[in-house]
Amino acid sequence: MDTETMRAAARALLADHTELPSDEELDTLTLQLRGHLMLAIPVVEALADRLPEDDAPRVCANVGVMEARTRMSLAPGRTLPARVAHAQRLARSVNALCDHYENLSGGHPIVLDPRLPALVRLWNHCLACGTCTATDANGVNANLACPSADALYEAYRRAPLHPDLPSASGGRP
User: Fold this and answer.
1) Residue 163's Cα: distance from chain center in Å?
2) CA trace torsion 65, 92, 43, 118 (10° rounding)
3) What sign does the dihedral 158-164-170-173 (CA atoms) show?
4) Dihedral sign, CA of 152, 158, 164, 166?
5) What whole-number distance in Å separates Cα of residue 112 and Cα of residue 24?
6) What is the pLDDT of residues 120-135, one digit of tens each?
7) CA pair distance 137, 27, nearest whole angstrom
8) Quick one: which of 27, 111, 126, 152 has the fewest CB in 10 Å?
9) pLDDT value at residue 12
10) Crossing angle, helix 80-105 and helix 3-14, to 10 degrees?
11) Could you give the CA distance from residue 153 to residue 36 in angstroms, rounded to a whole number?
């Protein structure tokens, strides 16, 4: 997990004297935070599962995971302040899961799924790419073709499921 990038996204909403983001910036930050949580939750869970059931760090990490899942399941309010508060709660969960990850991994990088780095590269590109985030007049994603995103998706699709398996796409979409 790239905790530095994850924490930077959280800081964008939680830092003192932070200006209120625009609607578009808030939507992008919220999506980014949700993506970080989707990546962090299974990693932190797997690390916690290595510990005995009554171990305090395991219990704390599992509470953090449960809280993150709950926050992700809630819909943001309609007003800008309610949407900002929702995004800030997601940011706090990102920070908490980064803390749990660092605590449980001893600060050593851990990749549970070898496809995860390729997926993160695709995710980061799509969040920052004007073509991937372009919307139509109704504010709905325009689904424009993006050769860079297509290439990153193909790299993800061809990544091996396990380090010991060949990188064939046999049977996968």
Assistant:
1) 23
2) 140
3) negative
4) negative
5) 33
6) 788 778 888 899 888 8
7) 16
8) 111
9) 86
10) 150
11) 18
